[in-house]
Structures are given as structure tokens and as C-alpha cells.
Design a protein that fits this description.
Elements lengths: L6 H16 L7 E2 L10 E4 L5 E4 L5 E4 L7 E4 L5 E4 L5 E4 L7 E4 L7 E2 L8 E6 L5 E5 L3 E5 L7 E4 L6 E6 L5 E5 L3 E5 L7 E5 L5 E6 L5 E5 L4 E4 L7 E2 L8 E6 L5 E5 L4 E4 L7 E3 L7 E8 L2 E6 L4 E4 L7 H4 L4 E3 L6 E5 L7 E7 L4 E6 L4 E5 L6 E9 L2 E10 L2
């Protein structure tokens, strides 16, 4: 017997299913409305709400709502984007098409940096507001300590097209290339040494979650891991042969790798096991970034932008930690309360545009957040345990 639901019951059933999808319980990666049909190569977030995406032959776009909608910033192409902080950022791109740019105002406007030569720039990383590195297709590493006014250049002898660059601090950095080499510096780029080669793999992306733990991805489903700051690298089992373009970890346990054909791999145990997620696209995916503890954005060919707003990345400390903010909304002040005895907690406060307006290390289990010079409106409190982001809370300052 087929039981026909009444219109009322059917309505509530559909409402429940819609709620499950909107909260990410059934849905994982959802396609967002894209401002372009051109290939997107890079994505970077400066806060849970504020981020940028661009392509080597595309334009630059900005979001202020966590990646749901995007608006044009300007006709600035970029293969890579990196911000040192909420205000200071740099881009790298194809030669002759805005190959180097910088911002000191959070990306609301960008100025051109004169390139040291005519080669395309495939990657950039800033270790301070004024110190920035660029990697070029002619196997050069360009460094500036004055925001791009002048450069010093080093050659990666024996390299073949460096593809990505990452620094764990002002001295220690890593570069990967298409010949499968991992290059390392321990002296702020004065010298670069090739200390590992992945046989038969083209390496595309490098990311560290601490000074000791880092990951690299590449072709053939290759993912490498170091636990000793890059002295040694081990090959992880991914059960994938896909061309992986970008890897990003939220913390030591939770990471994502994306690549050609719409592949998205996820790990929740530090890379020991990887699970292929449903991306609902066959487009090549080129870059991934965690916007927050529960949200990640992926961009790719033909302007594809995917968002997962229901990622679980919290550690045991985060999961078992209750942080209260009361009252909320508030007018003059609110009180932040964390469990007694919990140490190494800090927070950053961002406005609705993604600008960091406060940064505080909590020295006790209670802290009074005063309004002071803050304007009426919505803000976001981002809490950290040591170097690991725990959670984000929205607060409102009222009239």
C-alpha cells in the first residue's frame, strides 16, 4: 500500500529536508553564484567573512559574506594571493597582465609593483607587511624587504617551474616545483637547498600548520607530510591517482586537497586516511582555503566557486569548550567567559568588512570587552587555542 502524505505533512517534510541541506547535514559542497566564467586560480580569506579570488587571465573579486556572493575589485589578474594581515597583501600573476600588485588597505585598492624581469610569477608569500617573496617561471626567487620597491634574486639551480611557496616564520620557507623537488631555506631566502625529490610527481602546493608539520600535494594523488620541519618527508596513502592542485590544513588533523576533474579529498586524522567528497562538478579545482572552523571555499575552471559551510574541524579542546559572550547584543560592554583553568586562549575581533579591530590574549577566565571606539554594527569574535582556531561568534553592538 502506498501511503499518500497530506499536504500539511508533505510541506513539513520538505521543510525539514530543506533545513538539513541548508545546514550542511545532507549537503556538502554547494556551488555559489560566480561573477565570472573565466578560470579562477587563487582564493584567500583574511577573516571568516572577507576573502578574495582571482585568475591568471581573469579579474579580482571580493566577498564580505563568507564566499556566498562576490563583487569585482578591479581588472587585476592573479595566479596567487597572500595577505600577511588583514591590511597588507600581495598578488602574483602572468607576465604583462598585472604580474605583481600590493595593497595596504585590505584589498579595497591595489597598486602595481614593477617586476624584476619579464617572467611570469606563479606564487607569492609575505613574512611581514613589507617583506615579500615571489617565485617565477625562470626558476628565480625574488625577495623584497620594502614592499616591492627593490628586489634581490636567487636562482633555484636545477629546478623546473616552481609552483608554490610557504614560510613558517621569517627565516624558514619552502618551495615546490614541477620536477618534484622541495626546496628549503633557513636563512630568510639567502640560500635555497633541495632536500627532497618526489620521484615521478609534479608538485603543486605546500602548506604548513605549524613550524614542524607540513604537507605537499601533486600529480598522481601524491600527498607528502613532514613532522620535523621539512627535514624528512613521508608519502601518505590517498588511494587516488588524481592531479591535485592545492592543499590546505585547518589544524594538524583536518585538511583538504583539491584538483582536476572536481576531486576533493578530506582528512580528519592528520593525513592517515583520505576520503573523496562529492563536489558536484567535473571542473578542474585549483585552490582551497578555510574561511573558518566550519567553512571552506574552493575555486576552479570556468569560474566555479564551491562552498562547504558545515565542515567539522574542531579538536577535542574546541569541541568541549564552552565560551559565553553576554550580553549580546550590547551597548557599552560585554563579558567573555571561558572555562576556569583553560589556558592559551586568545581572540581576534573583526568588523563586517573583515578588518581586524582587536586582538587579545585572555589571561583569566573572564574578560570585559568594551565598546570604546567601535561603531554600531555586526562583528565577529574568532577564538584561538594556541595556534588553532576554535570557533567564531557573531556579536552585535546596538544603538
Amino acid at each position: 500500500m502506498i501511503k499518500i502524505l497530506s499536504s500539511t505533512k508533505l510541506f513539513f517534510l520538505l521543510l525539514a529536508i530543506t533545513s538539513l541541506y541548508s545546514n550542511g547535514i545532507l549537503a556538502q559542497w554547494q556551488s555559489q553564484t560566480s561573477p565570472t566564467t573565466t578560470k579562477l586560480d587563487a582564493v584567500f580569506f583574511t577573516s571568516p567573512t572577507s576573502g578574495f579570488t582571482a585568475g591568471g587571465f581573469s579579474k579580482m573579486y571580493k566577498t564580505v559574506d563568507g564566499g556566498t556572493s562576490w563583487t569585482l575589485v578591479g581588472s587585476y589578474s592573479a595566479l596567487d594571493i597572500h595577505f600577511f594581515d588583514a591590511n597588507n597583501g600581495y598578488t602574483a600573476g602572468v607576465s604583462g597582465s598585472g604580474s605583481m600588485k600590493k595593497t595596504t588597505v585590505g584589498g579595497s585598492s591595489w597598486t602595481t609593483i614593477t617586476p624584476p624581469n619579464s617572467s611570469s610569477i606563479w606564487g607569492t608569500f609575505a613574512t611581514s607587511a613589507t617583506t615579500v617573496y615571489y617565485i617565477a617561471t625562470d626558476n628565480k626567487v625574488h625577495k623584497s624587504v620594502n614592499s616591492g620597491s627593490n628586489f634581490t634574486t636567487k636562482t633555484l639551480a636545477g629546478s623546473s617551474y616552481p609552483t608554490d611557496i610557504y614560510f613558517t616564520d621569517v627565516n624558514n620557507g619552502f618551495i615546490v616545483d614541477q620536477s618534484g623537488k622541495i626546496w628549503r631555506t633557513a636563512d630568510a631566502g639567502a640560500t635555497w637547498i633541495n632536500n627532497f625529490t618526489a620521484t615521478g610527481s609534479l608538485l603543486t602546493s605546500v602548506h604548513f600548520v605549524s613550524s614542524s608539520i607540513g604537507f605537499v600535494c601533486g600529480t598522481g594523488g601524491t600527498i607528502l607530510k613532514t613532522i620535523d620541519g621539512g627535514d624528512n618527508w613521508s608519502t601518505l596513502t590517498t588511494n587516488s591517482t588524481d592531479y591535485l592542485k592545492s592543499i590546505r590544513f585547518y589544524n594538524t588533523q583536518n585538511g583538504l586537497a583539491v584538483g582536476f576533474g572536481g576531486v576533493i579529498l578530506k582528512t580528519s586524522d592528520g593525513g592517515t586516511t583520505w576520503v573523496k567528497e562529492t563536489s558536484n562538478t567535473t571542473e578542474n579545482l585549483n585552490s582551497v582555503f578555510y574561511a573558518s572552523a566550519t567553512s571552506a571555499i574552493v575555486v576552479g575552471d570556468n569560474g566555479v566557486i564551491l562552498k562547504n559551510a558545515a565542515i567539522s574541524t574542531l579538536s577535542n579542546v574546541s569541541e568541549n569548550t564552552k565560551i559565553d559572550v553576554f550580553p549580546n547584543p550590547f551597548y557599552e560592554s560585554t563579558r567573555i567567559t571561558i572555562p576556569t583553568g583553560l589556558k592559551d586562549i586568545s581572540f581576534k575581533l573583526f568588523d563586517i568588512l573583515g578588518q581586524e579591530v582587536r586582538s587579545v590574549n585572555l589571561l583569566s577566565n573572564e574578560y570585559q570587552l568594551d565598546r570604546d571606539d567601535l561603531h554600531v554594527g555586526i562583528y565577529f569574535l574568532q577564538f584561538f587555542f594556541k595556534e588553532e582556531m576554535m570557533m567564531t561568534k557573531k556579536i552585535v553592538i546596538k544603538e
